[in-house]
Amino acid sequence: MFSLQLNPKQCISCGICMDVCNPKAISMRCISIKGIEGKIISCSVLDNGYVEEQKPSPKMSFPFLEIPALCNGCNDCVDECPTSALVLATK
Fold this sequence. Notes:
Elements: E1 2-6, H1 16-20, E2 26-32, E3 43-47, E4 50-54, E5 59-65, H2 76-80, E6 86-90
């Protein structure tokens, strides 16, 4: 069994880890901004090569192993994370 360890200060909530997870074990969980250090000024969404600035939402989403039994330990989520915010550990 595996566990996903996240450094929330490094995570940019891009969802790439969820997208590359072939067994679909990873989901995103919304967390209120009050529990996060700092303040969100703005964020950008990349869609088909175009960057669009958006106002920050009152919540941010972070990855978690929704169904840990589906995780096969392939490490794709860790390898593809652009900010190295994830570590896959063995329980």
